[in-house]
Amino acid sequence: MAREKTSSYHHGDLRRALLDAALEMVRTEGVAQLSLREVARRAGVSHAAPYRHFASKEALLAAVAEEGFRRLEEALRAAAAEAPGPLEALQASGRAYVAFAMANPGHFRVMFGPGASSEPYPALAEATHSAFGVLVGTLQACIDAGLAVRRPAAELALSAWSIVHGLAQLLLDGVLRGAGSPDELSALVTARLVEGVRAPAAAQAPARRKRG
Predict the structure, then answer these.
(1) Which of 5, 12, 34, 103 is the 20 to 30 A CA-CA neighbour of 87?
(2) What domains can be seen in the chain, in order of their start residue?
(3) Distances in whole angstroms, Cα of residue 106 to Cα of each of 61, 129, 137, 140
């Protein structure tokens, strides 16, 4: 996925310019430093201009987060669609999650940061639920095929999301510097994730075929 880009205000696309300026500021200085006045300055507009689209800093952050979850959902769906089977789709989705975080650090930090609450923003809540639903659906496909343990798909999805999110956060924070590339580490962690949800019969099947 392409890395986030920033732009200044051109041809009336004020909302896009404000979102891009906010993303760049989050990426370089963090969510806590963001303000509508500074976002306006970076976008090259008056300090009152952001209020045409966003009633507050929180509303701007919610819009950034919503956009991030929409893009994340697209990435997860695309990865799963290219996989040859349900378990492969699960691993591919996990790797796509980490790749998204690395390519879109501004979006990622806002999506899961303290400044963007979905409670007063229905569109953000729906986007979050929809992205999580991709993972639930992927795990349900594994269960239906007899490849994953028979537990509620949402329960397995929560565990899977926590695992890949933890890896993504560690990588963004530089904690795993020198331990391997993001792609190598996501391949390793998601392989262990698949092993953890695989049904016992599915795990034994290759061995039985080999003996036969």
Answers:
(1) 103
(2) 1-54 (1.10.10.60), 59-211 (1.10.357.10)
(3) 11, 20, 27, 31
